[in-house]
Amino acid sequence: MTNHITTKWLGEMAFESNNPSGETIKIDAGPESGGSGEGLRPKALMLSSLAGCSGLDVASLIKKMKLDVKEFKIETIANLTDEHPKYYDSVVIEYHFTGSDLNEEKLKKAVDLSVEKYCGVMEMFRKFAKLDIKILYHNS
Fold this sequence. Notes:
Largest sheet: 3 strands, antiparallel
Protein name: Peroxiredoxin
CATH superfamily of the largest domain: K homology (KH) domain
Strand content: 25-35%
CATH architecture of the largest domain: 2-Layer Sandwich
Radius of gyration: 17 Å
Structural class: alpha+beta
Number of helices: 3
InterPro entries: KH_dom-like_a/b (IPR015946), OsmC/Ohr_fam (IPR003718), OsmC/Ohrsf (IPR036102)
Strand order of the largest sheet: 1-2-3
Number of strands: 6
Organism: Flagellimonas marinaquae
Order of helices and strands: EEEHEEHHE
């Protein structure tokens, strides 16, 4: 299967990129790099892709396992190298689950399945970064 994305220059430092879903996003550099800061940054988008990919897996498993989760969020904290080309060499991925009756064992299984088996973006990140997975449970 092939993905085909078209990314069109809008002038200055801004671009618009489409997606197979038909949706588009705006990409722009910050003012310190000659942009207007009105779009998403490319490297940060990679972190959104990582969290989104794994999040979709986990959300699907929460539904399949009929788990009671009030809130679920993923915090992604990445270290950027100092030298050009700058890239993420380490990433901490924190899975936060909130609820009054969390099944920690099954939630851990859902995260593990995503991290180790299902999330293709996670596998891509493994090629260039050290990944640190953390699961945090918050009782509400």
